[in-house]
Design a protein that fits this description.
15 strands; about 500 residues; alpha+beta; disordered N terminus; three-stranded antiparallel β-sheet; about 10% strand
Length: about 500
């Protein structure tokens, strides 16, 4: 599955896409062209969902936007000319699902081992069980089924083999284990209240958990996306073509809120905001829109690894792609203990359990941009790490220690005076990246055969997602490779 957007509205390469019969606030599509139907609403939207939403909120959600049809299905369009600075969409917290609706008899029985996302999953399971008797039935009935979701926790082992080269491969198993632990912690409640929940299997819990997938949005603060939010609980659907989102705010006081279903444009300056004074979630237009134009917002600056793990789709040529790289101090290095001590002193804090990982560093590389001769995208801490690795004498290490102590405390952040050692360190990094590039090349070559191998994947779209992931990370690695080659030769 290749996504033209971050959080929904995915297009299947080479496949026909049938719109799902899930009316919603706004359907997720990316750069979808308006079809001949224009902005006409579907009958279900007119007669059921939107009136329910108005009743739930007690007011109009927007007078500027309407649900219409694009070439991929329902989309959100401007119903009149919109000027920059106008509030396009406003959804009160009262119309947004939250763990607050958990019945009082259940709250004391949910143990601390069940986190915020698990608690919301419990709410969803209970409301799903109630069916049309639920106050949220018009919303709950439009959630996608298990087979319509493609986040990595639902991939088979054969499918995961396609992305073994990526660090995200190893995170999938940890993520599954974490969800299973929460399920086991909540299982006594499910077993005791079978009439209330029905039979809740691990699979059904994972389904609900994936719908209410948690994301901490500290990385978004720099871009001012979601700048009013502390913790983000993204209520995101990994399906074609819809997106549901729920937020948690309040530093422990859970207050979830379903927002709406806007399409993503990574270049858009429209962002989701929270107005705590009026208790609403809002989108303010960052530019002018003509009547009938599809309205897009930017959800965040997420790499394909995050999108695939949590949300179940990828973008082709995602400019936010990045790669994790791990570097070790070789244990046969004669200066192993001294280097580890130095790294621990200046870079790697001791873990809570009393052990340390000061012989290993994990760093995130972004696509390298050359700015005034420096490689913007290679973390300074990574370059410092390899400078320490390049040292072959105690004097060199002591010089780095003194320089750090006399300045800002950061170790080896400046090029080494000994140019030979400087180049040696960067060649160590270059060798590591070269090895990774080779693995990615092999993985991408193998995807050509996966597409025609029977039984490797029942979802051809997942092959496309794997290709997007690996291609994006390979692009990042090659950009770092090129810069390092130039740096070492110069």
């Amino acid at each position: 599955m290749r996504g033209g957007n971050l959080l929904g509205g995915l297009r299947l390469g080479g496949l026909s896409t049938r719109p799902l019969d899930f009316p919603c606030f706004v359907k997720m599509e990316f750069r979808a062209s308006i079809s001949s139907e224009g902005a006409d609403l579907s009958s279900n939207d007119q007669l059921e969902f939107l009136p329910w939403l108005r009743r739930k909120s007690g007011r109009e959600i927007s007078s500027m936007l309407s649900i219409g049809w694009s070439s991929y299905g329902r989309s959100l369009f401007s119903s009149r000319r919109i000027h920059a600075g106008e509030c396009m969409l406003s959804v009160p917290y009262s119309a947004q699902l939250s763990p607050d609706i958990t019945p009082s008899f259940l709250r004391p029985q949910i143990c601390n081992d069940v986190g915020a996302i698990g608690r919301l999953a419990i709410v969803l399971l209970a409301e799903m069980r109630r069916g049309q008797g639920s106050d949220w039935a018009p919303y709950i009935s439009r959630l996608p089924g298990f087979d319509e979701m493609h986040c990595l926790i639902f991939w088979s082992d054969d499918e995961l083999e396609m992305i073994r080269s990526s660090q995200i491969y190893h995170e999938v198993h940890d993520h599954r284990t974490s969800i299973e632990k929460e399920y086991l912690a909540a299982k006594p409640i499910f077993d005791h209240y079978v009439g209330y929940f029905g039979l809740v299997s691990l699979k059904s819990f994972m389904h609900a958990y994936a719908i209410a997938q948690v994301q901490r949005l500290t990385s978004e603060r720099e871009s001012h996306d979601f700048q009013s939010f502390g913790w983000g609980l993204k209520f995101l659907m990994r399906t074609i073509p819809y997106f549901w989102m729920c937020w948690i705010t309040g530093m422990g006081n859970l207050k979830g809120r379903i927002f709406d279903f806007l399409n993503h444009d990574g270049n858009s300056e429209n962002v989701l905001m929270s107005n705590e004074d009026s208790e609403t979630s809002e989108v303010i237009s960052a530019r002018d829109y003509a009547a009938g134009e599809q309205v897009l917002i930017r959800y965040g600056k997420f790499p394909n690894a995050t999108l695939l793990l949590d949300f179940g789709f990828t973008l082709k040529d995602n400019k936010y792609d990045q790669v994790q790289i791990s570097m070790d101090v070789p244990q046969d290095d004669p200066l192993y203990s001294v280097k580890c001590e130095l790294l621990q002193k200046h870079c790697m804090p001791r873990l809570e359990n009393g052990t340390s990982k000061h012989d290993r560093g994990t760093f995130t590389i972004k696509e390298v941009k050359v700015v005034h001769g420096s490689g913007k995208g290679i973390p300074p801490a990574l370059r410092a790490f390899v400078r320490v690795l390049s040292a072959n004498s105690l004097d060199e290490l002591e010089e780095m220690n003194v320089e750090a102590s006399e300045n800002d405390g950061r170790l080896a952040r400046r090029p080494l005076k000994n140019r030979t050692r400087e180049i040696t360190g960067h060649r160590i990094l270059l060798s590591q990246i070269t090895s990774m590039i080779q693995r990615y090349d092999v993985s991408l070559q193998s995807l050509r055969y996966v597409a025609i191998a029977p039984g490797r994947s029942e979802w051809p779209c997942r092959i496309e997602m794997a290709r997007d992931l690996l291609s994006g990370e390979l692009r990042v690695l090659k950009s770092a490779y090129s810069w390092l080659c130039n740096y070492c030769s110069d």
